[in-house]
Amino acid sequence: MATVVRSFLWITLLNVSVGLSSSASEKLTACGWVPGDAFFAASGFRTEGGAENMALVFVDISLQGTPAFRDYAGFHFLKVTGEITPVLAALRRVPAPPEDLFFLVYNKAFLHSQGRFGLKYNEDWFRPPQQAATQRKSFPATGCYTSLVNGAEAVQLDWRLSARFEGLTAKLPQEVTDWARPGELIRTPAHIPVTQIAVVVVRRSDIEKLCLKRETVSAWVIEHSGATLTLTYKQGQRKLAAGMQGDEASR
Asked: Fewer CB in a 10 Å sphere around the end CB: N or C, the chain?
């Protein structure tokens, strides 16, 4: 029975995801990161705290520009703690304008898997814990699924492989228990130590190519130590090379 329900929900998602326009998405609840998502998708970052306790905070892509969403679910801020200076320095060296980029925060082990970048691989997106679905507004909770890549092929890949990949191991703030229900923006961040992450930085215009491996495309990888790699797909084959190549890497 559970398998039937799961299949029905994924098929429903497949039907509604194809052709979803930006004007339609403006009427939806803005879904941030939820437990089980393979990565946190950010449109930018900032620092908090002083020199002794500085943290790096990534800001969810739904908060870019002037948000037009009526409600929010999930977490829209991710705080990275520990020795963040090398990562911050590397982020600032990326050879592309920040406004042209997505910053995808992954568990560092994901880099060595066969997972597609840009897919959430969240097998449980439609069934949050009961406590997390405590009502914040007077209408029912809905599954919180978002993808940077729309269309049938991406949803099918996500569906078929969602059980294989671990979600980002960020910790939830204890004081926030109703994150699965639409409501006011949750400003308290989820948090994760810098030693557990890697950041994939990709041009917004290249995210579909990176995910579906259709063309020659490059992105940048920043490890927790601040070491940088250039990630390249060519004819479907992935290559990681040391260093941060410039814009010509994907041309």
From this structure: N
Share of the chain above pLDDT 90, in %: 45
Q: How far apart are CA 32 and CA 216, in angstroms?
A: 29
pTM, 2 dp: 0.83
Q: Which residue has the tokens 């880099």?
A: 111
Task: Give the Cα separation of 224 and 62 in Å (integer).
Answer: 25
Going across the sheet that includes 39-48, the strands are 190-193, 77-81, 55-60, 39-48, 101-107, 197-203, 217-223, 228-234, 237-242
Domain spans of the chain? 2-15+29-250
The tokens describing 95, both together, are 């050879």
44/50 Cα distance (integer angstroms): 20
Per-residue pLDDT of 9-41, as tens digits, reads 444 444 333 333 333 344 467 889 999 999 999
Q: Is residue 108 pLDDT above 80, yes or no?
A: yes
Asked if 191 and 65 touch (Cβ cutoff 8 Å), the reply is no
**What length is written for the chain?**
251
**More confidently predicted of 208 and 236:** 208
d(CA 194, CA 83): 7
